[in-house]
Amino acid sequence: MEKRTDMRAEALDTLIDIERNKKLSHIAIGETLMRNQFEKKADRAFYTRLCEGVTERKIYLDYILDHYSKTPMKKCKPLIRSLLRMGAYQILFMDVRDAAACSEAVSLAKKRGFGRLSGFVNGVLRTLVREKENLPVPDKKDDVKYVSITYSVPEWLSKLIIEQYGKESAEKIFASFLEARPLTIRTNLSKTTPEELEKELEEAGVKVEKGNYLPYAFTISNLNYLGKIAAFRQGKFAVQDESSQLAVAIADINEGDFVLDVCAAPGGKTFHAADRLKGAGKVLSRDLTEYKTELIEENKDRMHYENVEVQQWDALEEDESLLESVDVLLADLPCSGLGIMGRKNDIKYQMTEEQLGELAALQRQILSVVWKYVKPGGQMIFSTCTLNKGENAENIKWIEENTPLHLVSIEEYLPQNLKNRTGSQGYLQLIPGEDTCDGFFISKFKRPEAK
Ligand SMILES: C[S@@+](CC[C@H](N)C(=O)[O-])C[C@H]1O[C@@H](n2cnc3c(N)ncnc32)[C@H](O)[C@@H]1O
C-alpha cells in the first residue's frame, strides 16, 4: 500500500507536468519511468494506467466532477483538479478500493500544502462514491455534446467524425479508442519465420496471438521491456500496427527494386520494404530532421538491413537526381493522426480544425513534388494514419486530377476479411471499432508506362 501511495504522487506530478508544460503524455510518463525505474511491474502498470486513463478520459471526468463540486473543474487549482481527476478515475474505472482512492487523495492534498482544501477533495470524492451507480448522463438529444462528453473528445472533433462517418460509427470509433490497444508486431521474414518467432517468443514467456489480417503479424502481451527480448534485439520483428503493415503489403516489391520512402521515420514501412527486398535492391529512407533520421538509424542498427540508406531530406524540395527512377514510392505523409488517437492520447486535445486544413495542404505540396520520382510503370503508395476524409479521399481525388498517376486495384493483396470494400477502386479506409486495427488509409497509384 505504501508503494501505491508513491505511485499516486508520481502520477500527480506527471499529470501536472502534462497540463502545465503542455508536455505530450507519453513523453512525461516515459521520463518518469526512466528516472525512477520502478522495480515492481504492478507499480509501473498502476502508475501508467492512472496517468493514461486520466488523460484519455479528461473531458468525461470533468463533466462528472462538475456535478458534485461547487467549484467547476476549470476554476480549480491545477493540483486540486488533477487530484480530483485521479480520484474519480480510480473510483470509476480502476479496481481500487474507493476508500483508498479518497483517503490517498486527501493525504496528497495535505502533503502538497493544500490542507485547507483537503475537506473539499474529500467531500467531492465521497459524494461521487455514494452516487456512483447513479451518475449523470449527457443529453442524448445533442449528438455532438453527447459523443464529446461520453468519449472525452473535443466538440469540434466529435462533430467532424459524426459528419464524416455518422453518429453510430463515430461512437464505435471513439469507444474503441478507449479500449486497451495490443502491441502488434511484424515478423521480419528475411530473418525468421512466423512459426519460429511465435515459438521463440512463447519460450521467453511472452503471450502471442495471431494477427487478424496478415500471416506474419502477431499481438504480444505479458512482457516487461521489449529490449529484454532476444528476438527483438536480434531484429527478428518490428513493432508495427497491422494497418501500417498493410500499406507495404499492397505494394508489389520485387527483389532488386529501388524503393524511396519520403517521410520515413521511425522506419516502420522502410524496414518492411527492405525485408521484402531480401537483400537485393535498395530502400532510400528520408525524413526532415536529424532527430528523425537518427530514429531510423537506430532501427537500422537493430535490424541490420544493409540495403537501407538513411538521408535527411525535405520532401518539399525536388531532388532532380531521382526523377523517374523509383520502382516503389512510399508516401506515408504527415497527417492529423486521428486514426491513432487510441495510442496517442494527446492528439485529440492538441489537434485543431485549422491544422487539419493545413495538413491536407502540406500533403498536396509534398505529393506535387514526389510523384515525379516514380518511374514509368512504377507505383506510389499514399497512406496516412488518419480518419479525416479531407486528408484521404479528397487527396486521392487530387492526385488523379493533378498528376498522371492513377489508382489501381489493391483487392488481390487484401486479406479475405478486408475484401469487397473499396479495394478494387485502389484504396481502403480502415476504421477502428469496425476493423481490429488503427484508423488508417492506404491507396495505390501507378504511373503509366512510357509510350
Ligand atoms: C506518418 S510519419 C511516417 C511514419 C513512417 N512512414 C513509418 O511507417 O514509420 C510522417 C513523417 O513525415 C515526416 N515529415 C514531415 N514533414 C516532412 C518533410 N517536409 N520532409 C520529409 N519528412 C517530413 C515527419 O517527421 C514524420 O516522421
Automatic annotation (TrEMBL):
Signal peptide start and end residues: none
Gene3D superfamilies: NusB-like (1.10.940.10), Sun protein, domain 3 (3.30.70.1170), Vaccinia Virus protein VP39 (3.40.50.150)
Coiled coil: none
Catalytic activity: cytidine(967) in 16S rRNA + S-adenosyl-L-methionine = 5-methylcytidine(967) in 16S rRNA + S-adenosyl-L-homocysteine + H(+)
Source superkingdom: Bacteria
Pfam families: Methyltr_RsmB-F (PF01189), NusB (PF01029), RsmF-B_ferredox (PF22458)
GO molecular function: RNA binding; rRNA methyltransferase activity
Keyword RNA-binding: yes
UniProt subcellular location: Cytoplasm
UniProt-annotated binding residues for S-adenosyl-L-methionine: C263, A264, A265, P266, G267, G268, K269, D287, D314, D332
Active-site residues from the entry: C385 (nucleophile)
Residue ranges of domain SAM-dependent MTase RsmB/NOP-type in the record: 173-448
GO BP field: regulation of DNA-templated transcription
Job description of the protein: Specifically methylates the cytosine at position 967 (m5C967) of 16S rRNA.
Family: Belongs to the class I-like SAM-binding methyltransferase superfamily. RsmB/NOP family.
Protein's name according to its UniProt entry: 16S rRNA (cytosine(967)-C(5))-methyltransferase
Gene coding for it: rsmB
